[in-house]
């Protein structure tokens, strides 16, 4: 025993026993972490990179960003620290890593006539280093950073985006597709459209809730569909990978058993993510029926001669339907929805008025440092079960799930560990129920630049010192707990590491 304790102190990672080894993850289950270009790379104008919409808004309106780091100019400096990033993946034993390409690092002006060789080189270096250590790359083409010249032409409000995005996708598939077998076209359409075009808390700050959100929604789905068809027709036969999309799926519980609350929760699901899921995953295609009827009726009352939601032609429906080889889901949080209570006044017209129901969160649901993020019972299980029953996609990949802690907290992040373990239990329940979940990516590999939250909301399994020019990364307790899970493939509640010295297990 004494010898074991000494060894534990030296080796740091000493594992106990999982209570129930039968509840374990399959050997081919992908365990990874996720990040995004803007949030970690820095090098905002290095080696020919062009300006993105996040560079533009943070340079023009730094007052919009909270905390000490007002822009993503340097963030985690992964543009220079990519070797260390892969080393962290190896320390935890990750089998996958999800990251995004910066469109304007590859195509500085957004269009494919001018490719930046230094941008291609950066991603080649990163991908090659991962492949060298058997870490599977999952690559997102668009994680919110449109090249500014394309925004100047309307961005996702311009239907030509479908062609511009397809051209960009072709450059990515051509240059990286020999090694990248998992492509995600868009990350979180809801946040792109609802927050970036509908409100002003994400770039490009369009703030057109009643119309901008919906215009963006359809253009985004058709852009995705173009990239999917391109891959499917020209690249999949040679490269043999898969292509899909990642939606952010918050879970909406009906507040009571009443039929009215069930309807209200369903409307919320359709409005928040069904408008992206339905055209792609449903058999009939197009926008979800009940929400479409609701917006059409309201638009009429409001004096519009057409539904603000818009509609898909039969040809567009057919083009978008079935265009995802997997359902990528980012899941963090949940609400209870009521048809009658907690309804707040919204501007008319607006998307929140189109939704029109009350949101509630019971006090016993713990809240993260990000006020929008709560731990609700079995919300991941509920969300995926619902999607599986409704759309029955070929498979699910959990492309993000995570918990933030406040700035200044130390390396002991027990609340994050509780959150992740609860999510892993949900995944085990889904697997036991026969749902085809193929991977889990924790958000995030390290603390990073959390959009307008700056560096005040820390999601990292590794802490990053943003005051240190080297942006030193240090493993938190949660990194050790994730490492235990990956190594044993089951959750060991007795594992409670105290020595946080991280090393690579050879
Ligand atoms: C989802 C987004 O994809 C990611 O960029 C963000 O940092 C996390 N949510 C946490 O807010």
Largest sheet: number of strands, sense, barrel closure: 8 strands, parallel, barrel
Provide mean pLDDT, rounded.
96
Any idea what the shape is? globular
Q: How many domains, in number, for the residues?
A: 1
The hetero compounds bound to this protein are:
1-deoxynojirimycin
CATH architecture: Alpha-Beta Barrel
Instruction: Determine Rg (CA atoms, Å).
Output: 22 Å
Strand order of the largest sheet: 1-2-3-4-5-7-10-12
Helix content: 40-55%
Terminal-residue CA separation: 24 Å
Number of strands: 15
Output the CATH class name.
Answer: Alpha Beta
Q: State the fourth-level CATH superfamily.
A: Glycosidases
How much of the sequence lies in strands comes to 5-15%
Structural class: alpha/beta
What is the CATH topology?
A: TIM Barrel
Work out the helix count: 17
**Unreliable segments of 5+ consecutive residues:** 1-13
Task: Describe, in plain words, how this protein is organized in 3D.
There is one protein chain. The chain has 506 residues and is an alpha/beta fold. It has one domain (34-495): TIM Barrel (Alpha-Beta Barrel). The chain is built from 17 helices and 15 strands. The strands form 4 sheets. Strands 1-2-3-4-5-7-10-12 form an 8-stranded parallel barrel, surrounded by 6 helices. It has a 3-stranded mixed β-sheet with strand order 6-8-9. A two-stranded antiparallel sheet has the order 11-13. Helix 8 runs parallel beside helix 10 (212-239). The radius of gyration is 22 Å and the shape is globular. Mean pLDDT is 96; it is low at 1-13. It binds 1-deoxynojirimycin (NOJ). The site of 1-deoxynojirimycin has 9 residues, from loops.
